[in-house]
Amino acid sequence: MNDVSHPSGIFPRRKASGGTLQPTGGGQGFAKQIIIPVAIAGAVLLSLFLLSASIIAVTHLNEHTVERIATLARNVEQLVALETEKLGALAESIANNSALTEAFANQDRAALLQSSAPLFAAVERKHRISHLYYHNPDGINFLRVHHPTRHGDIIERHTLNMARQSGDVVAGIELGVLGTYTLRLVKPWRHQQRVIGYVEVGMEIDHVFETLHRITGSAMAVLAEKKYLTQAQWQQGNMVFDRDSDWNRLPDFLVLAVFGELAENAWSNVRHEKGTSEWITGAGIVYRSVPINDVQHREVGHLHIALDESTGRSGTIEIVTYLSVLVGLSLLALILVLRAVTGRVEGRLSHAIAEKSDFERRVKYDQMTSVYNQQEFYRLLDLELERAVRQQSPLSLILLDIDYFKTVNDEHGHQIGDCVLRGLALELLAYARDGDHLARYGGEEFTVILPNTVLKDAYEIAERWRAVIERRVFRCDGQPVKITISLGVANFPLHTEVSRTLLQCADMAMYTAKRRGRNRVEVFTAR
């Protein structure tokens, strides 16, 4: 004979309230209550420390980067100032050259070109001078030594206009229409106490940025603001200067020159500061931009620089790691000390909890079936009935008894009978609802307290239990045993408001079930 599985859909398996006594871990709980909060607090403190240390480190790195950028900006200014001095010395020597002055005063273009050409060739080769102009007082170009066939046009550059207005030397960077940065210097040319014209000298300053790259070892890109150029002029400049640069590569900037190797993500950070977290966790490359201002003090472009902060990053990581390990070891030592101290207390507490658990088991639970005993049943019945009276809610009670249990003991022995009792208790617990209270009332009798349950529902629950047990086959020491149960149901407030009387009503109903043939459910009926 095989076991009969539980029929599905009868009613859900749930654990009855207080059905079995679960082992407690009070001793371990005591240690956890101390160690875990300390560990959490320590972890929080360690995290705060790491956060603070990281913030301080990042701030330090940021300050270091800002200082490096400021130094680079000063270097650019110094290099430009040196080139400006060269231009100034050249313009001064031209203005003081009597042959050149006489030729210009006489508006003798051929003589002026013949005398200027060797000078320009020398300074072009030695000092990178790329432009040499002579302008009339009205701003009309008289001679371009570097391009002698072109003259007679009006020069409207800011450097010349400022020199004409101020009567003094004016120097500064201008962004050319073809996309070049040119350092220009314009000097009023005086002869016999009057201004006879203007000497203008200039140079492309790519070599200044190249020199800065060579000195610092930092990769960099020279950029120009798109808004100051047109696409047509830019493309013309590409052909003139043999550039290979795309107008649409960047939304707001144009790449004039690149020195060194820049990562692909470098371009996404133009004019934006890199996230500081990369200094600690990334490759240590920080991107910054130094503005390029023209003679009108307009920000016409940027020198976009990749700074390698890996050395400072490595040092910062080492310091933070060292301090973190130190704090972590201190925290671990504290936890170990606490664990040692709580170990003894935990042992004593575990012993006390075990004794308390054993006492509760003896006082509240039936030793054989691990459900509530009769004494605890009485207490729970009084408690639930008081609550039902107070809340005006129904309460039902089921009393059940194993039919012919004496025969089971006689035929199979008391050991098998005890096994059947335990199996019945487990089966009732498995199908009891949350909040129901199952107890062994005595011998082969069990009681179930059903809070908030009307008589009709209690009867249906009892009938389902009866059907489940009727189909159930208990196997004890390999022997199949089948039993049936008789159940009596009583209800508050229909039958009584007194707990002991309610129990008597359920008992009378159960014995009615036995008289009427057993394996049935009866509801108490007043005579």
Topology of helices and strands:
Blueprint: H1 26-95, H2 98-105, H3 109-127, E1 131-135, E2 141-144, H4 158-166, E3 170-175, E4 181-191, E5 194-204, H5 206-216, E6 219-225, H6 231-240, E7 253-259, H7 277-281, E8 285-293, E9 299-308, H8 310-364, H9 374-391, E10 395-402, H10 405-412, H11 414-430, E11 437-442, E12 445-451, H12 455-471, E13 473-476, E14 479-482, E15 485-492, H13 499-515, E16 521-523
Parallel strand pairs: 15-16
Antiparallel strand pairs: 1-2, 1-5, 3-4, 4-5, 6-7, 6-9, 8-9, 10-12, 10-15, 11-12, 13-14
Helix pairs in contact: 1-5, 1-8, 2-3, 10-11
CATH superfamily of the largest domain: PAS domain
What's the average pLDDT? 84
- CATH architecture annotation of the largest domain: 2-Layer Sandwich
Distance between the termini: 44 Å
Fraction in beta strands: 15-25%
Number of helices: 13
Large-scale geometry = rod-shaped
Q: What's the quaternary structure here?
A: single chain
Spatial order of the strands forming the largest sheet:
2-1-5-4-3
Rg estimate, integer Å: 50 Å
Structural class: alpha+beta
Indicate the CATH class of the largest domain.
Alpha Beta
Q: Keyphrases for this structure?
A:
five-stranded mixed beta sheet, alpha+beta, 2 domains, Beta-Lactamase, Alpha-Beta Plaits, single chain, 13 helices, 527 residues, disordered N terminus, five-stranded antiparallel beta sheet
Give your account of this protein's structure.
By secondary structure, the chain is of the alpha+beta class. It has two domains: 56-312, Beta-Lactamase, CATH 3.30.450; 365-523, Alpha-Beta Plaits (2-Layer Sandwich). It contains 13 helices and 16 strands. It has a five-stranded antiparallel β-sheet, sandwiched between helices. A hairpin with a 2-residue loop joins strand 13 and strand 14 (479-482). The two termini are 44 Å apart. Mean pLDDT is 84; it is low at 1-15, 18-27 and 272-282.
